[in-house]
Amino acid sequence: MRDVWAMMSGRWLAIDTATDIASVAVGSPTGVEAGALVRGARRHAAEIVQLLDHALKQAGLRPADLAGIVIGDGPGSFTGLRVGWAAAKGLAQEAGLPLRVVPSLMAAAAAAARQLGSAPVAACYDALRGQVYAAVYVFRPGEVETAVAPVVTTIADLARATARPPAVRPSVVVGDGAMRYPDDVLRWSGSAPISLESLAPNATTLLSLLTLKGATRTLDDPLAAEPVYGRPAEAQAKWEARHGRPLPDPSRPAG
What we know:
Strand order of the largest sheet: 3-2-1-4-5-10
Oligomer: single chain
Number of helices: 9
Helix content: 25-40%
Mean pLDDT: 88
């Protein structure tokens, strides 16, 4: 109860950089006080610090004034997630803040679910190669159920898998992956896909999920934690296939 009270009464910084839309917001589960976003994956690294500074200044806060940071942990863009997580870790360490995470797909689904009650909602991000990062959620008062955990698949395969008992057919499907395969989405859900641009930014929705049962988890060791990339980036996959070992991290000294 003390943790819930702290989340409800304090002001949090939310960050999501899993897609082409990088967004930040400051507020609590009951409302957003400030926010900013930028579109275009190539802009994430150059502008994430400015986005954070802008949102905090709008809210009249310093990092030390925050109750904590909540961040979307993917799956999604490898580079985008690294940028957002590096910023979150740096602020959390500097200001001594707790760091909580929410699946980025859940945030997108929650934004679409606000007018649907407890109907299942799917989120699909483009994973290239004809695939998507996908998950299905059911939102109820005070809690969220993960009906299908994040997975890398095709929408057609996901539709077949969710048709088997217990069947989970979403009412809507949201995300850039859904927009890329609209015919498959229509056959699966019976509805046209919903774009991320037409919904509230993920960072805003992350704040609203803070107190929902089944939505967030706390990182015991934020500095060592990593987001859920879904699968390795193309360059990393090629390196590991050729050399049989992980790609070296350029931010860490050799030895």
